[in-house]
Amino acid sequence: MEKPEFDHKISSDDQTALHDAPSTLLVNGDGGDHPPIQSYEHTKNIFYVESIKLWAIAAPIAFNILCNYGVNSFTSIFVGHIGDVELSAVAISLSVIANLSFGFLLGMASALETLCGQAYGAGETEMLGIYMQRSWIILIVTCFCLLPLYIFATPILKLLGQRHDIAVIAGEFSIKIIPQMFSLAINFPTQKFLQAQSKVAILAWVGFVAFVLHIGILFLFIKVFKWGLAGAAAAYDVSNWGIAVAQVVYIVVWCEESWRGLSWLAFRDLWGFVKLSIASAVMLCLEIWYFMSIIVLTGHLEDPVLAVGSLSICMNLNGWEGMLFIGVNAAISVRVSNELGSGHPRAAKYSVFVTVVESLLIGLLSMVIIIATKDHFAIIFTNSERMQKAVSDLAYLLAITMVLNSIQPVISGVAVGGGWQGLVAYINLTCYYIIGLPIGFLLGYKTKLGVQGIWMGMIFGTFLQTVILLIIVWKTDWNEEVAQASERMRKWGAQTIDPDEQ
C-alpha cells in the first residue's frame, strides 16, 4: 500500500531503541507485543483485553462529546423561548457558520492524534507539550483566517438563499460568538494531548460540569438579566472558554511528565506540522460537509418542508449514534498511534479488528431497532401524520446509514492514528464528491425518488469509501507502519532536539 509520506525502514536493532509503551497501555503484562493468534481461547482473550482498553478511552470521550452537544442544544432551546425567527437564526448560525469552523479546526487539531499518540507510545512524553503548543499556534492563526466567515455571515447566508430577517439575525449572532471559535484553538489541542495519554476521565468531568453550568448561565443571562440573543451568545462564549481554561489548568498542574512549560521549540518545524494538520482538516471536513450537503440538496425539492423535516428527524437520530462513534474514532486513533509508537504491530492490528467487529455489532443493533420502530419513532419529534409517514419511508435508508456509520469512523480513526490523512482525503474526495453526490443529485432530481434518491446516492458514496478503506486496512503491513512511526519520532522527536534550545 502506498502511504502519503514516509518510506523509511528500520532494522531490528533500531526497533530495540524504541521505548516500551507506558504501563497503562501495555498489551501484555511483560510489556511486549501480542503473540500471533494460535487458538480460540487466545482470540477470546485478545477481544477481552482490547475491548477493555478501547472502551476505557471511548466511553469518557463519547460522554464529553454528548455534553458538548448538550451545550449547543440548550442554547437553541433557550433561544426558542425568545422567538421563532430568533430560533431559526441561531440554529443556522450554529449549524452552518459555527459548524464549518468547528469541523476545520477539529480536523487541524487531529494531527496531534498521530504525533502525540506515537510519541507517547515511544516514551517521548516530553514532546507532547511541544506538539500541543505548535497546534495552538497553527489553530490560532487559522481562527484569524476564518474570521471573514463570521464577519460576513449575513451576506453569505443571503447568498445561500436564506430569508433576509433570518440572515441578519444569524449574522449578528455569529459575530457575537467569535470568542467561542478562538476557544476551540485552545480546547482541541488540549483534548488531543490528554487523549494520547488516555487521560480521558478529566475530559468527561470537565464536559459534564460545563454543561450543567451552561444551563445556569443561560438562565441567568436570558431569564434574569433579559439580555436576549446577546445573553445566549455570551453564555455560549463563557462556557466554551471555561472548558478550554479548565483543560489547560489540569495539564499545567497535573501533567508534569508531558508538560514542561512554554518552549520556543514550538516554533520549530512548523511547516511540516502545518502540512499534516491541513491533510487532517481536509480529510475530516470532506466527511462533515458531505453529510451537510444532503440538507442543501433536499431543500430544493418540490416539497422542501416535508423533505427537510423528515430528513432532519432521521439525521437527528443518526447524530446521537454518531456521538458514540466519535468517541470510538478517538479511542482507536489513540490505540493505534500508541502501539505503533511502542513498536507493537500486532497489538495495533488486533485493536483495529476488535474495534471494527464491535462497532459493526452496535451498528447492526441500531439497524434492528430503527426497522422495528420505523412507524413509531417519529412521534417523538412531530404530531403530523404526514411527516411521520415520510419518516417511516426513510427508515430503511436510516438503518443502512447507521450500519455504515458504525464502521466508517473506526477506519477514519485508524487513518489518523497511522498518519494516513493525505491518502484518506483523496479517497473521500473521490467517493463522496465525484461519485456519491452526482449519483444522489441524479436520483433525487431526475427520477421520482426525491429525498430517498439523494440519500441513496450518498449512501453509495459512503459504502464505496468504507469498502476501500477496509481493503487498505486489511492489506496494511503493520511492521512497516511501526517503521514509519519510528521515522516520525526521529524527524520530530526528542532525539533531534539540542538540549540548549529547551
TrEMBL record:
<dbReference type="Pfam" id="PF01554">
    <property type="entry name" value="MatE"/>
</dbReference>
<dbReference type="GO" id="GO:1990961">
    <property type="term" value="P:xenobiotic detoxification by transmembrane export across the plasma membrane"/>
</dbReference>
<dbReference type="GO" id="GO:0016020">
    <property type="term" value="C:membrane"/>
</dbReference>
<keyword id="KW-0812">Transmembrane</keyword>
<feature type="transmembrane region" description="Helical">
    <location>
        <begin position="455"/>
        <end position="474"/>
    </location>
</feature>
<feature type="transmembrane region" description="Helical">
    <location>
        <begin position="54"/>
        <end position="71"/>
    </location>
</feature>
<feature type="transmembrane region" description="Helical">
    <location>
        <begin position="91"/>
        <end position="115"/>
    </location>
</feature>
<keyword id="KW-0472">Membrane</keyword>
<dbReference type="GO" id="GO:0015297">
    <property type="term" value="F:antiporter activity"/>
</dbReference>
<feature type="transmembrane region" description="Helical">
    <location>
        <begin position="234"/>
        <end position="255"/>
    </location>
</feature>
<feature type="transmembrane region" description="Helical">
    <location>
        <begin position="423"/>
        <end position="443"/>
    </location>
</feature>
<feature type="transmembrane region" description="Helical">
    <location>
        <begin position="136"/>
        <end position="160"/>
    </location>
</feature>
<feature type="transmembrane region" description="Helical">
    <location>
        <begin position="394"/>
        <end position="417"/>
    </location>
</feature>
<feature type="transmembrane region" description="Helical">
    <location>
        <begin position="350"/>
        <end position="373"/>
    </location>
</feature>
<dbReference type="GO" id="GO:0042910">
    <property type="term" value="F:xenobiotic transmembrane transporter activity"/>
</dbReference>
<feature type="transmembrane region" description="Helical">
    <location>
        <begin position="200"/>
        <end position="222"/>
    </location>
</feature>
<protein>
    <recommendedName>
        <fullName>Protein DETOXIFICATION</fullName>
    </recommendedName>
</protein>
<dbReference type="InterPro" id="IPR002528">
    <property type="entry name" value="MATE_fam"/>
</dbReference>
<feature type="transmembrane region" description="Helical">
    <location>
        <begin position="166"/>
        <end position="188"/>
    </location>
</feature>
<dbReference type="InterPro" id="IPR045069">
    <property type="entry name" value="MATE_euk"/>
</dbReference>
<keyword id="KW-1133">Transmembrane helix</keyword>
<comment type="similarity">
    <text>Belongs to the multi antimicrobial extrusion (MATE) (TC 2.A.66.1) family.</text>
</comment>
<feature type="transmembrane region" description="Helical">
    <location>
        <begin position="276"/>
        <end position="297"/>
    </location>
</feature>
